[in-house]
């Protein structure tokens, strides 16, 4: 399995403002690049915080890229995956539509009625007691044949994936704005590390739109 985390941050490292509304930090060229990364992936993963904030669709936008996937014998869109301990994904969420397969990763704490609602629209994976156990959930995704994984956020999930040692590559578009705010989400939130910080090897730096794309390989821990 190969896990790429891709996100857009402001010049001061924020994913969004303190209102946690969806903000376009990327420009047109970066969104086109993101579409290509999606098209090259077997699954796109987000946390339920992102689903509740953004109601993302997580599909490939360019018809040519979808057609190329069909020609390669793959579904036109990658699978979509939500990490959602308590089954808070709304039943009318865009990611539960028929455009692609969807997996919802739950913990044992997810209420039975929420499981039943979500099971009509998605494959359910249960891993962990109170919170999704990411090592087990990602092992289940791999068993389902999903090898190339793109994670789009948000900050809570990205931190946990680094903590679990599951990230192979980090691609960060740094945009030309300052968002600020101590309560605004950053690339990696959660508890934060105080020692044994994950370290990265810088692979490339590319000017894109009015910002910069940084591509990092994650060192083995
Ligand atoms: N600029 C960008 O590229 C992106 C920005 N965003 C922004 O990020 C914000 C959402 O991020 P967050 O609030 O951090 O939510 P998140 O999307 O990281 O989801 C976190 C939630 O996932 C669930 N979860 C279950 N098991 C977990 C585990 N083991 N580790 C971590 N979480 C687990 C918990 O309910 C937790 O609250 C929104 O403002 C959204 O607009 C989101 C994606 C990309
Ligand atoms: N790469 C990138 N740049 C930004 O500026 C963003 N705001 C995001 N957000 C991510 O894209 C998802 C929306 O996907 P759809 O267009 O609905 O398919 C959003 O939920 C974030 O994960 N990404």
Automatic annotation (TrEMBL):
<dbReference type="GO" id="GO:0008703">
    <property type="term" value="F:5-amino-6-(5-phosphoribosylamino)uracil reductase activity"/>
</dbReference>
<keyword id="KW-0560">Oxidoreductase</keyword>
<dbReference type="InterPro" id="IPR006401">
    <property type="entry name" value="Rib_reduct_arc"/>
</dbReference>
<dbReference type="Pfam" id="PF01872">
    <property type="entry name" value="RibD_C"/>
</dbReference>
<dbReference type="GO" id="GO:0009231">
    <property type="term" value="P:riboflavin biosynthetic process"/>
</dbReference>
<comment type="subunit">
    <text>Homodimer.</text>
</comment>
<feature type="compositionally biased region" description="Basic and acidic residues">
    <location>
        <begin position="63"/>
        <end position="74"/>
    </location>
</feature>
<feature type="domain" description="Bacterial bifunctional deaminase-reductase C-terminal">
    <location>
        <begin position="2"/>
        <end position="214"/>
    </location>
</feature>
<dbReference type="GO" id="GO:0050661">
    <property type="term" value="F:NADP binding"/>
</dbReference>
<feature type="region of interest" description="Disordered">
    <location>
        <begin position="63"/>
        <end position="92"/>
    </location>
</feature>
<comment type="pathway">
    <text>Cofactor biosynthesis; riboflavin biosynthesis.</text>
</comment>
<dbReference type="InterPro" id="IPR002734">
    <property type="entry name" value="RibDG_C"/>
</dbReference>
<protein>
    <recommendedName>
        <fullName>2,5-diamino-6-(ribosylamino)-4(3H)-pyrimidinone 5'-phosphate reductase</fullName>
        <ecNumber>1.1.1.302</ecNumber>
    </recommendedName>
</protein>
<dbReference type="InterPro" id="IPR011549">
    <property type="entry name" value="RibD_C"/>
</dbReference>
<keyword id="KW-0686">Riboflavin biosynthesis</keyword>
<dbReference type="InterPro" id="IPR024072">
    <property type="entry name" value="DHFR-like_dom_sf"/>
</dbReference>
<comment type="similarity">
    <text>Belongs to the HTP reductase family.</text>
</comment>
<dbReference type="InterPro" id="IPR050765">
    <property type="entry name" value="Riboflavin_Biosynth_HTPR"/>
</dbReference>
<keyword id="KW-0521">NADP</keyword>
């Amino acid at each position: 399995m190969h896990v790429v985390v891709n996100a857009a941050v402001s010049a001061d490292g924020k994913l969004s403002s303190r209102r946690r509304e969806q903000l376009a930090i990327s420009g047109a060229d970066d969104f086109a690049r993101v579409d290509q990364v999606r098209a090259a992936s077997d699954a796109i993963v987000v946390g339920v915080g992102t689903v509740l904030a953004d109601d993302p669709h997580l599909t490939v936008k360019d018809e040519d890229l979808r057609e190329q996937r069909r020609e390669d014998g793959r579904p036109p869109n990658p699978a979509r995956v939500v990490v959602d301990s308590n089954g808070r994904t709304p039943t009318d969420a865009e990611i539960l539509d028929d455009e692609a397969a969807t997996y919802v990763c739950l913990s044992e704490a997810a209420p039975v009625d929420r499981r039943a609602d979500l099971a009509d629209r998605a494959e359910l994976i249960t891993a962990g007691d109170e919170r999704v156990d990411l090592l087990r959930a990602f092992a289940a995704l791999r068993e389902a044949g999903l090898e190339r994984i793109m994670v789009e956020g948000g900050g809570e999930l990205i931190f946990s994936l680094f903590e679990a040692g599951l990230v192979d590559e980090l691609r960060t578009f740094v945009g030309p704005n300052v968002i600020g705010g101590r309560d605004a989400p950053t690339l990696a939130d959660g508890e934060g590390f105080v020692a044994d910080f994950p370290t990265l090897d810088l692979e490339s730096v590319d000017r894109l739109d009015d910002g910069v794309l940084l591509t990092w390989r994650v060192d083995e821990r």
